[in-house]
Write a structure and sequence with these properties.
The complex is a heterodimer of chains A (553) and B (223). With 553 residues, chain A is of the alpha+beta class. Chain A contains 17 helices and 17 strands. The longest helix of chain A has 26 residues. The chains are: A alpha+beta (553), B alpha+beta (223). Strand 2 of chain A pairs parallel with strand 6 of chain B.
């Protein structure tokens, strides 16, 4: 190889190809993804008839998703090699992953449990018996020439995912939707290919080969990009809560393919295209909306939709046709002869004699360990703390924020509805400004609770509390009381002092006083403001109002 | 191509197990081991005649997991890889007969022979990325199909198809621990072409060349 002689330049080239590769990685992955699910419906896919212009406005998008989620596990699905990210090429490859002769698959219990847990969280029926199949295709990053998957009888079927998104004209209405989950199947990931067109070769890294995947197939129950993106986010959140997948889309831990078609409601589904290469939830929405619009336009102009695979180009925000394999792929599915059926059991009583109960997967045990799911948690937040639904979304979306909020609530006398304002505005505002994660917040929940207690006791005003909060952010080691004292922010409630200040304000604002005396009491707020400016927001507003009213009467 | 089927019998040793499947003409040879009652055929002779490429060790019939090491599926992949077959034969009393016996099936009992058209050969070559080379290769393919035709003689009335001879046994589930995989050097040594720590393969996802181009290419292939 000529390349191997010049070390640094080779490396640079490799990096270039790697970057190039990153953009096509999903594309590759999709070759591995199951196409059978979709082809089954292809006979009923017709071109929507456009009789006259204007009909296109009636066309509606239909969206189904296929999602590959990398299982968060220590070792791969069928081999004892490490699931490693960003490690040197081919450094984490077992003989099985390289498909050396004589090797046989041994299933990882963790992967089975992850699929069952995910299935339970998505209201699926868990198949007590499921089967493994070989799906054949030839590609250098899959050395066996087939992928072990679950085509005939997957581990979980018939589930549903409830998700919400902000819709309506002002995007302030919480709309709740449900998408059916057709199935969840266990399968192997492929390796990675780096294409080097110049030298007409492909570099193969098998570190990812054999990593456990859950493929989730969603029915075409969605109608636009926003819905699909919301469903993906909700799924991502559920997987992260369960710990079955880390869900980072940009790192390929969660990969989304969208099946998009358009039709007039009530008529058979139109011909669908598959959009691949989508690596963020935002792009899910953009890619799908673009594709729906494109298909509408094609039909409007009398064209026809071709069943094809398209890649999303995030730079231009468009989808472009991918060079597909000629003709229909024949995956030549066959039962995997090296793996007997996979059994999971309802409970200990249903485990057959002679089988070690510690070595099997039991559904009731996993069910009991299910954490509080995002949807349930949001409902609880709204119900228990009487906060707004949109706030419950923010609480659940940010990792650890619910716990933070609840700890503040536990430690303060302030109303939860007040606490949420502080968490949303001050805490998140500061975090976002400095792009910090919640775990990096200098202000602990207890410190925030202290501050709210001081505020609640009437010792400081809310504007002063905000100043204290900023000071706490800068000097987290100082206690709230200390800061209040140091900054001289304690509420001025000394009547003598307030009288003096109010008198000064009244004297310097004769016109306003005149207006008030003429009957416009609203102008009193202006004087209130002036007093607060004078006292840096420390004057007790109740007393000030009383004094000013007296002086202007 | 050939369906992979297992037919349920009363006990393991009398199981009809056709291991050819779709890959029978590609990376793996049509290694089939047929045991029906007391009848047993092997495809050894057929295999030797077949100009199949690439010829990898796992194509060989003798490499097929036919002894006790495979029957439980309880060993780690690494163990199996390095296990000594002859010693495991001594340890296990395999339910699979140790010596083949056979009696030929009369031609008259078989269905009409299958003729493989050039177009079908072309499709197979594309799917499996193998080269049948010439008429001789096609003849061999037809012979392989003819060999499999003998299965039609087996009476399967009232016998439910099965996926695996072990389907009534629980699939062993292993702990999620790392015990292998740090062997890049060893693996890369097996490859003819490498760049740094990568395997090198020909470019993928490109339109396949025409029949003529392909045979020329395969003859001079580096990979």
């Amino acid at each position: 190889m000529a390349a191997s002689s010049s070390g640094s330049s080779t490396l640079k080239r490799t990096l270039c190809t790697f970057i190039r590769y990153r953009s096509v990685r999903c594309v590759r992955q999709c070759n591995a993804s199951i196409r059978t699910v979709c082809t089954s419906g292809s006979t009923s896919q017709l071109q929507p008839k456009i009789q006259s212009k204007g009909v296109s406005s009636q066309l509606r998008g239909v969206v189904g998703l296929e999602i590959h989620a990398q299982i968060h596990a220590t070792s791969k699905l069928f081999a004892c090699s490490r699931v490693a990210f960003c490690s040197p090429p081919n450094s984490s490859v077992a003989f099985l992953d390289a498909s050396l002769p004589g090797t046989l698959p041994v299933l990882n219990r963790r992967c089975v449990e992850a699929a069952v847990i995910t299935g339970l969280a998505l209201n699926c029926t868990i198949n007590r018996k499921s089967l493994f199949d070989r799906k054949h295709y030839f590609y250098a990053d899959m050395p066996a020439g087939y992928q072990i998957t679950q085509q005939r009888l997957p581990i979980a079927v018939n589930g549903s995912l409830i998700y919400s998104y902000f819709g309506g004209r002002k995007r302030n209405q919480v709309l709740s939707r449900c998408v059916r989950i057709k199935q969840i199947q266990l399968e192997q990931d492929s390796g990675k290919s780096l294409h080097d067109d110049q030298r007409s070769q492909t570099l193969i890294d098998l570190n990812r080969a054999g990593v456990g995947l859950m493929e989730l197939v969603m029915e075409a129950d969605m109608s636009c990009g926003d819905e699909a993106a919301a469903a993906v986010r909700e799924l991502q959140l559920i997987l992260q809560t369960l710990g079955t997948c880390q869900g980072n889309m940009s790192e390929g831990q969660l990969r989304v393919d969208a099946n998009v078609s358009v039709h007039c409601p009530g008529e058979p589904l139109g011909v669908r295209t598959e959009v691949k290469n989508i690596n963020s939830a935002r792009y899910v929405a953009r890619a799908i909306d673009y594709e729906i619009q494109r298909q509408k336009k094609v039909l409007e102009n009398g064209g026809i939709i071709v069943n094809e695979t398209r890649a999303f180009d995030s730079k231009s925000g468009t989808t472009i046709p991918m060079r597909d394999k000629e003709g229909l792929q024949d995956y030549r599915f066959m039962p995997e002869p090296n793996l007997p059926p996979l059994f999971v059991y309802e409970d200990e009583a249903s485990v057959p004699a002679g089988v070690n109960p510690t070595q099997v997967v039991m559904i009731d045990r996993l069910k009991a360990e299910l954490p509080e799911l995002p949807g349930v948690r949001r409902a609880r937040m709204v119900d228990q703390y009487k906060i707004l639904p949109e706030h419950s979304f923010t609480l659940v979306n940010e990792d650890g924020l619910t716990e933070y909020f609840e700890r503040v609530v536990r430690n303060t006398k302030a109303e939860p509805r007040k606490v949420i304002g502080w968490v949303m505005k001050e805490l998140l505002g500061n975090l976002n400004q400095q792009s910090l994660k919640l775990a990096q917040s200098p202000v602990s929940p207890e410190a925030l609770a202290d501050l709210l207690n001081v505020l609640e006791s009437g010792h400081i005003s809310s504007s002063a509390a905000k100043v204290v909060f900023q000071e706490m952010w800068k000097a987290p080691e100082k206690a709230v009381e200390q800061l209040v004292k140091e900054l001289d922010l304690g509420l001025v409630s000394d009547r003598e002092k307030l009288l003096k200040i109010c008198q000064k304000v009244v004297d310097t604002h004769p016109e306003q006083v005149h207006v008030i005396r003429a009957g416009n009491k609203k102008v009193l707020n202006k004087l209130m403001g002036a007093v607060q400016t004078e006292t840096k927001g420390r004057a007790d507003p109740v007393q000030v109002r009383a004094i000013l009213e007296e002086m202007t009467s | 191509m050939f369906p992979c089927c297992f037919i349920r019998r009363s006990f393991l040793s009398s199981v009809v197990n056709v291991r050819s499947g779709a890959s029978g003409l590609g990376a793996t040879a049509p290694g089939s081991k047929v045991t029906a009652g007391r009848r047993l055929f092997t495809s050894q002779s057929l295999h030797r005649a077949a100009p199949l490429r690439p010829t990898q060790p796992r194509c060989r019939l003798s490499e097929l997991p036919a002894n006790g090491a495979w029957s439980t599926g309880r060993r780690a992949a690494g163990c199996r890889w390095s296990s000594n077959r002859s010693s495991s034969n001594a340890d296990f009393s395999s339910k699979i007969p140790q010596f083949p016996t056979w009696e030929p099936v009369a031609e008259s009992q078989l269905p009409p022979p299958t003729k493989v058209s050039l177009d079908l050969v072309d499709k197979l070559e594309r799917l499996a990325l193998v080269d049948f080379g010439n008429q001789e290769g096609v003849n061999c393919l037809e012979k392989a199909i003819r060999f499999a035709d003998q299965l039609h003689v087996v009476n399967t009335d009232g016998v439910e198809p099965m996926d695996s001879v072990l389907e009534d046994r629980p699939l062993y589930l292993r702990e999620d621990t790392v015990r292998e995989g740090d062997c890049a050097e060893e693996l890369l040594r097996l490859s003819k072409h490498i760049v740094e720590e990568y395997f090198v393969a020909p470019p993928g996802n490109i339109p396949l060349p025409t029949r003529e181009e392909r045979s020329a290419m395969l003859k001079h292939a580096d990979f």
